[in-house]
Amino acid sequence: MVVMKFGGTSVADQAAIERLMGIVARQREQDAAAADAAPGPVVVVSALSGVTDRLLGVAAEAGAGDNEGARHNLRDLRARHMTVAEVVADDALRAAARADIDRAFDELERIVDALGVLREVSPRWLDTIAATGEIVSSRIVAAALAARGLHGAWVDARQVIVTSAEHTAAVPQFPETTAALEATVRPLLAAGHVPVLGGFVGATKDGVTTTLGRGGSDFSGAIVGSCLHAAEIQIWTDVDGMLTADPRVVANPRVVPHISFAEASELAYFGAKVLHPATIQPAVARDIPVRILNSKRAEAPGTLITANRPPSDLGLTALASKKHVTVVDITSTRMLMAHGFLRRLFEVFERNKTPVDVVTTSEVSVSVTVDDRRRLPAIVEALSEFAEVSLEHEMAIVCAVGEGLNTEPRLVARVFDAVGDVPVKLLSQAATRRNITFVIRETDVPLVLGRLHDAFFASAGAGGRA
Q1: CA-CA distance, 346 to 293, in Å (whole number)?
Q2: Which of 130, 141, 157, 239 is most deeply packed, by most CB within 10 A?
Q3: How crowded is residue 336: how many other Cβ atoms within 10 Å of its Cβ?
């Protein structure tokens, strides 16, 4: 059984959902040919492209008391979903889907009116509002599949994805989620249905709606695949797979055909946009392959992610970059031969709930990078109690990733040769020796990525499509 997760661009409009249905139909045919006892697939969908941002905007307007602005956005969103629901070919199923849309947006309007009076939107209400996109899109897709004769069956994600009560960033509870999926989804598969549920959304044990955080729809797909022991988890998006570099920065990047879980995690953490880092975790736990595919070019082979991959002649696998980074330099002579200094330093970041990406140390100084500046003033104030602190904004992280870095020492020299005369602020290589990470000025990113890509990937030819 395969879990197929479709992103926002893959359900953006009627044409996108038509393509989705064709992809699901082909998977059903493959499963039937293989005599799969419970063919599926299970389909997990995001909200329609751009809808979650609009819903968060509605929440902000309600919190500011702008009820009219919030209602205007809700009317637009309702109309868009009604238009997309025209893809449902059966009159009765279409009418039912439209009724579901009306109920969801009627409820949102009541919530917005109440929050407009309170002038406050708690994380709990934010989750309730944001979850609507996935709930409604999954109803439309389930109805469309049923109308096409593909036996789509809607599953309320709030009934099967059991999470903690950390609103806007809930943590899945795997034993409870496994039990719920086995009780709800497994019988549907056995009866020949295609279960359809919204990603990103879950609920506490008490039934309170939660969300898994931005990018959580990929995570949902991996959770479902892990709990149901899927043969493969497919992430359907709008690119041909993971690319050797960001196509917005490097011209004609290549598709990476096969990548390891560890490499994919490094790339995702340091800025690759195709895959949410948390997606990897449940798949790794079960050793389930993840395949990234293009819903607009379903014939493209995509990128396969497995625990290990075959050796490559290229050395590096791909490049990633992250802009809008701040370097925090912390200097103190108290560090010299002193224990406990680093603990005290990192406790400041922990108290302020601000993760760091790159860390370098010397005898009397520590430098770290952060990409979340919201609590920097408080962090600087706390650090200044025992050290001198300076900030350098408009910096960027560039990460060169490849299993070959662990086995071929000369690759490191080739990386530095490519970087050339560009000033490097910080440099790090983890114990796994799977990546080289360095911090440079944000303005130098196009030059450095271009040089690295030319040095390691140009000779293999272009294969990526943005």
Answers
A1: 39
A2: 141
A3: 9
